[in-house]
């Protein structure tokens, strides 16, 4: 490894912010941890910005060295940020972070469990919102033995249910 690559492409600042974010995470200071992980993501992008800004519109000079690419810690930072967002009760943001981390950790079963936790948490929040707002959440279709109970798969913000007058009588309020 050439010395100039080692000095120019090091990602020490991103790992510093990631480590500080992990320390705040273990101290249960989730807002501070989220801030430091966002700083780490911003610093991590500087690896590629420095390479692209130093290029002279020549295709060969825009190539990123293997050493620079190996210093990219985006997946690790996104996974850590996803954990924080999940604990902060932001399952949509956590899901997006875990999706970004899945590019590198697609074989890690813990990642898939965290993605499932995000889905469950989002569904739980939508059910709680429906109960608090006393909105219609459970629907029926049919009469007698052919009655079917229908549960929406998405939150009520994401779907529109068009009911005619006969179906409105079959709605059960939770």
Q: Could you walk me through the main structural features you see in this protein, from its secondary elements to its overall organization?
A:
The chain is mainly alpha-helical and 174 residues long. It has helices spanning 3-8, 12-26, 30-53, 66-70, 74-87, 91-101, 109-132, 165-168, and strands at residues 139-141, 148-150. It contains eight helices and two strands. The relative contact order is 0.09. Residues 1-7 and 155-174 have low confidence and may be disordered.
What is this structure's SSE topology?
Blueprint: H1 3-8, H2 12-26, H3 30-53, H4 66-70, H5 74-87, H6 91-101, H7 109-132, E1 139-141, E2 148-150, H8 165-168
Antiparallel strand pairs: 1-2
Helix pairs in contact: 2-3, 3-5, 5-6, 6-7
């Amino acid at each position: 490894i050439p010395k100039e690559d080692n000095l120019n492409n090091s990602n020490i600042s991103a790992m510093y912010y990631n480590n500080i974010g992990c320390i705040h995470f273990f101290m249960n200071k989730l807002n501070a941890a989220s801030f430091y992980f966002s700083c780490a993501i911003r610093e991590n992008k500087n690896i590629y910005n420095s390479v692209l800004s130093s290029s002279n519109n020549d295709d060969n000079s825009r190539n990123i060295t293997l050493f620079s690419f190996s210093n990219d810690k985006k997946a690790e930072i996104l996974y850590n940020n996803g954990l924080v967002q999940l604990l902060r009760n932001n399952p949509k943001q956590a899901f997006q972070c875990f999706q970004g981390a899945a590019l590198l950790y697609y074989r890690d079963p813990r990642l898939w469990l965290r993605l499932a936790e995000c889905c469950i948490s989002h569904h739980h929040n939508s059910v709680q919102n429906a109960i608090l707002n006393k909105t219609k959440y459970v629907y029926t279709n049919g009469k007698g033995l052919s009655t079917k109970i229908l549960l929406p798969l998405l939150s009520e913000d994401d779907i529109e249910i068009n009911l005619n007058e006969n179906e409105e009588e079959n709605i059960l309020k939770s």
